[in-house]
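Methods — Computational structure assignment.
A single polypeptide chain was analysed. Its primary sequence is given first, followed by the predicted tertiary structure written as structure tokens.
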Amino acid sequence: MDIKLKLFCAVAETRSFSKTSRIVHLTQPAVSLQIQALEEFFETKLFDRSHGEINLTPAGELLYHEAKHILDHYTDIEKEMRKISGAIKGGFTLGASTSLGNHVLPRVIIAFKKEHPKVKISMMVGNTKRIEELLKSGFVDFALVAGECMGGKLKRETIMSDDLIVIVSRDHPWAKKRVVSILDILKEPFILREEGSGTRQKIEEYFAVHGISIHDMHIALVLGSTASIKEAVEAGVGVSIVSKWAVQREVKDGRLKPVTFREGNIQRDLSLILPVRKHLTHVMDEFLIYVRKFPYDTFYKKI
């Protein structure tokens, strides 16, 4: 019933079965079947699908209000029971933007699990926009992302900072340089992240400050992951800008070369986001305390 209620709330909030299916990575028929099962259980229609729109029926409005209350109340019960027992166990689902999810948080999770082996942690990784959608729909409990929140009803707390760096192949003329001008980027084929990416958002902001639009640039490729960008840069397709966390191994091996802009570093905040009225369980509280105190610089080697 838990997953059915979460899916129901997601459809109620997005007003779209197709958008919900994309957010939760289920097929649209699978989402529809879960809603149909709820309607059969309660013997009433929950959505009015007439006139090409999806709106809650009066019964749907009632269920939405109560479902949100039930899901929050369940979390509160679990939290109080864990406090009484003193045990740090249970589970949660964490959302993470690409750089954090692939290069930072796995180490944090492993360290936390060594101290609390009974905790079960699931992590969903995607660009900042997708993770925010999952958070609002209740399919992740909280998230760590790069970039600003794009919508309301979310709390944001800076956890750490990050530098974005220019990367080039070892055969690129810039490989022998340490510093270039931002104007030099206009002469090079550039590999960009997709829309909705926190990295792309910060790059566009930085360029805009210096009077450059991405429309002024020679965009060779738009790719959906840092891993694919690194491969394209290494293959000599173009230059790009990625998180410092993402290229430590390639820089150490000499496969990629880092370059900085004469005009200054590109810095951004990496943030914890969660719904304003989110009810956190005991294990979530403990994990967030751990995340806030974690010594991130100890596993980052300056490049």
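Note: The longest helix spans residues 58-85.
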